[in-house]
Structure prediction request, 516 residues.
Amino acid sequence: MRKWWPLVAVCLGAFILLVDVTIVNVALPRMADDLDASFSSLQWVVDAYALSLAALLLAAGSAADLFGHRRLYVLGLVLFALASLACGLAPNAGVLVAARAVQGAGGAAMFATSAALLGATYHGRDRGTAFGIWGAVNGAAAAAGPVLGGLLTEHIGWQAIFLVNLPIAAAAVWLTLRVIRADRRATSGNRGRLDAAGAVTFTLAAAAVTYALIRSAEDGWTSATVLVSFAVAAAALLAFVLAETRLARRGGLPLLDLALLRRPSFAGLMGGALLFQGGAFGCLVLVSLWLQSVLGLGPVAGGVALMPMAALSFLVAAVAGRHVQRIAPRLPIGAGMLLVAAGMYLLYDGMSAGADRSSLIAGLAVAGAGVGLATPVLVSAATGSVPPQRMGMAAGAVNTFRQLGMTLFIAVLGAVFTHTARQELAGSVPDAHDAASALAGGQAQRLVAAAPEGRRAAAENVVHHAFASGLQDVFLWSAGAAALGAVLVLALVRPTPSRPAADAPAERPVRVAEEV
Prediction:
């Protein structure tokens, strides 16, 4: 049992950082009431965390390679805990959003180091088991967030969804310092310096493109704010490529080894990670809003309605995670993405104006099975493709693309939903634009209540139909993203060497593909 304590320490951190991606979804209406803030402004509570997490993952992975994975993991846990305390004590929406951004920075340090710590601690068959369990925790945590958020919000208060992180983070810090050995720092000199230029330019590019997509749902794609943000993102991305290329030529350690992206296997894994995460989880914010604002469920009932995804992702990852490490990674990853696409199509097929929460069961269960099958292999495939001293870079890269996928798809799917709802509401309400924005903000009941008493039944039918039509388009986009990710992975990721990963020597990382 002692050999599994490092896995427990890593899983504790992974659980709280991934739960906090989705745990706030069902609590947003209560936060808006308590903080006297508009619902749309509180959506930044979700976006600020996801944006900070995605933008800083590569920088955190590079810093971990230079200064030690255990050291940065512990630092991330401490920062995450302090930010969680600030979230729980926040007196207004502005403080809450700022604290969530800091929380995302701590989460980036934890996320970028978790897989590297496991890869350095476990070898052979134990490595497959460790990554299988860790992948199960990853998949279940993101899907279980709405359930836990509903329980804590309804029975204690929304502050509890943040304060519960404190004892878990404290236990993870104590356990990490006791059972995980400190790893060696990178050598001194030019190769031991943090790529500050790469970190700044990549973070700016990720932040700008995410901000542009978020604003597009409200301001439109041609607004000055959106266009300027896209221009800033493009300029920052170009600067990032130039900075990384120049540093690599000088023999330094770039934030991201761009040469890997020219190889089909690594590029396929990164593209697949982005489309997988966005296709699987990008729709959950809107599904949670439908459950509460349209069907009238409470936070707990709304969270429980999403349980099939959490349960199946955990079970499949726990059962299959150890075994799928031995076969070509493109097969379980591609199959998992196809299952996510199938699940999203089932959700599309079952959605209608008269649908209830039972219409989600089959689709969420199938998508959850896909999440559980693909997640463990996706992460271990990336970290196993590079030398041990660059495992932090690989973990940061794959998790950056995953979180960017979720962040970008939340924004894109929000715009898709608003556009479809606006078309459905046109002619039925005085201002279809404002009404569609209200639906996307979880204010369906307020729209119905604002109608004349004699027309409220008709208004309710219009609202149900508009929300269902918007969700149908969201599910179709999600299915298409997951299917495209499967095509990329199956076409680009090369087969593994003939020797199973479980039989690889302990001193060598598991290889993913001969070309990578």
Notes: The first helix runs from residue 5 to 22. Residues 496-516 have pLDDT under 50 and may be disordered. The two ends are 34 Å apart (CA to CA).
